[in-house]
Backbone:
């Protein structure tokens, strides 16, 4: 009995691992941020047109959940995001692969990709409104346009940077063109593709927000826009918070997907 | 006997690479070699004498400028499953486990999966990596990676095993262990082996015959039979007849 008791004490005293400590600190940091938010809203920026304390944002969130308004808008934004970003992944990877594999395709497309990658494509939104109207299609188009280029460029870079030693292995084992592609080039490009998708994700979310702020009839961005027009700071901040949480959740999902599709990378990182 | 049943024959082989100035830089000059089935032949030479170029031509990775390579009497110009190539280093697929790396060649040949796995498991055991089937290359030491490299080349059951300085990147101690293991594996498999190295003692220890490559462009300077009995213990490297051979080859490379 005494032995068990001392063991337990020892366990309780065991210093936390670096990971536990980092987690604890992150948690405290977030908590302090929320407290600061609340205090500033209560005592510094007291005008409810300019700012709202955290508690009021939570109340606004609760009301929005109760009326079902939140779910409707979240649904609309999600559909825009999923279609636009999904299409960007499919087309981005396909074109990136073609550019990586065929020099001709690369030479013709590369100038365009370079120009478009570095230009602020959200500026196309007014044009898309004229072209596709205020509904779903204009939002899908803007999400697609802003998120496709990082995916495309990274896929292309991944294919092109395939280790020459590995290509030589493929030749030595008499791989066909197709086998070299599926067994060597695609797996070696996979971490690049995942990085491209991660970069595209942030841009796609921005695309949803900008698209909806500009002109829309529903969506979380629409929620923010209408709240802003009626000087309702709590609802504006709630909308921003929802986008933030969505971004965080999607990033986590992607990191998990990276570990799933490229386990050798994940364990490489852990070994470091 | 050797004249009639050469497993691998190199005839009048020349190789030159185009140089930046538009001319051509000769690498190999009139290389002629005959290797019998089951022979272990080491090719030694200083760096830059064209030994890696030679073995890459034998595998069919690059074409010769003139001359030909025959295996079992048939001329070869591209890589084929009759040859297995063991690369210098870092040629394992980092996204594949040890098992999946070893089955690679069989997968390319579209053999049934259960055959792939049973062949690979046997070879993994043979090279001393049983228990590491699921490990990824980055989790293995340099020596272990080269064992996988060897098992992968053996998996397709090639007629000729081509090894391009496979132990060059290993530390001295690991290298000696690998030399002994390779000898044991060769005793069991009796493949025809062509082994490139710049280490004279490695060549003598492993080989039935040592071909000394030298000159610019490189050519076969001498063809030395190694009369040491097998199996060879690592201690043999300190024996007088061994050191005499080392001395002789060293002098050939120097000139």
Residues:
């Amino acid at each position: 009995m005494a032995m068990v008791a001392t063991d337990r004490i020892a366990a309780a005293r065991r210093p936390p691992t670096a990971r536990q400590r980092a987690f604890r600190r992150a948690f405290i940091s977030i908590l302090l941020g929320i407290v600061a938010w609340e205090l500033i809203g209560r005592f510094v920026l007291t005008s409810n047109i300019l700012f709202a304390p955290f508690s009021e944002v939570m109340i606004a969130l609760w009301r929005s959940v109760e009326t079902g308004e939140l779910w409707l808008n979240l649904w609309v934004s999600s559909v825009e995001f999923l279609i636009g970003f999904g299409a960007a992944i499919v087309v981005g990877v396909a074109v990136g692969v073609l550019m990586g594999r065929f020099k001709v395709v690369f030479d013709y497309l590369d100038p365009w990709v370079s120009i478009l990658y570095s230009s602020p494509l959200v500026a196309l939104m007014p044009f898309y409104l004229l072209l596709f109207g205020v509904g779903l299609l204009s939002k899908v188009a803007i999400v697609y346009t802003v998120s496709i280029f990082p995916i495309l460029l990274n896929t292309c870079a991944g294919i092109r940077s395939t280790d020459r030693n590995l290509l030589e292995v493929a030749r030595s084992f008499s791989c066909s063109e197709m086998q070299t592609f599926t067994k060597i080039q695609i797996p070696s490009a996979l971490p690049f593709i995942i990085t491209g998708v991660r970069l595209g994700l942030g841009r796609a979310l921005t695309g949803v927000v900008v698209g909806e702020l500009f002109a829309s009839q529903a969506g979380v961005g629409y929620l923010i826009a209408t709240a802003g027009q009626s000087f309702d700071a709590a609802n504006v901040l709630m909308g921003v918070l929802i986008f933030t949480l969505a971004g965080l959740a999607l990033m986590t999902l992607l990191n998990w997907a990276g570990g799933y599709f490229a386990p050798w990378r994940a364990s490489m990182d852990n070994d470091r | 006997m050797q004249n009639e049943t050469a497993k691998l024959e190199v005839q009048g082989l020349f190789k030159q690479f185009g140089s930046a100035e538009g001319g051509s830089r000769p690498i190999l000059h009139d290389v002629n070699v005959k290797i019998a089935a089951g022979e272990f032949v080491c090719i030694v030479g200083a760096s830059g004498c064209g030994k890696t170029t030679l073995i890459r031509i034998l595998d069919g990775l690059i074409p010769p400028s003139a001359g030909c390579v025959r295996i079992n009497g048939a001329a070869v110009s591209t890589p084929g499953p009759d040859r297995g190539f063991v690369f210098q280093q870092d040629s394992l697929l980092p996204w594949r486990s040890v098992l999946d790396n070893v089955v690679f060649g069989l997968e390319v040949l579209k053999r049934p999966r259960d055959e792939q796995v049973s062949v690979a498991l046997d070879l993994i055991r043979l090279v001393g990596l049983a228990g590491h089937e699921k490990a990824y290359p980055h989790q293995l030491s340099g020596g272990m990676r080269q064992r996988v490299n060897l098992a992968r080349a053996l998996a397709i059951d090639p007629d000729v095993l081509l090894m391009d300085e496979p132990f060059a990147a290993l530390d001295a101690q690991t290298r000696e262990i690998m030399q002994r293991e390779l000898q044991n594996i060769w005793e069991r498999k009796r493949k025809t082996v062509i082994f490139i190295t710049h280490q004279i003692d490695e060549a003598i220890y492993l080989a039935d015959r040592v071909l000394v490559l030298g000159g610019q462009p490189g050519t076969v300077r001498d063809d030395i039979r190694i009369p040491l009995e097998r199996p060879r213990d690592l201690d043999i490297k300190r024996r007088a007849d061994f050191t005499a051979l080392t001395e002789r080859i060293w002098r050939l490379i120097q000139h």
Q: What stands out?
A: The radius of gyration of chain A is 24 Å. The interface with chain B takes residues 163, 165-166, 168-169, 171-175, 179, 183-184, 187-188, 190, 262, 264, 267-268, 271 of chain A (CB under 8 Å). The CA atoms of residues 10 and 187 of chain A lie 47 Å apart.
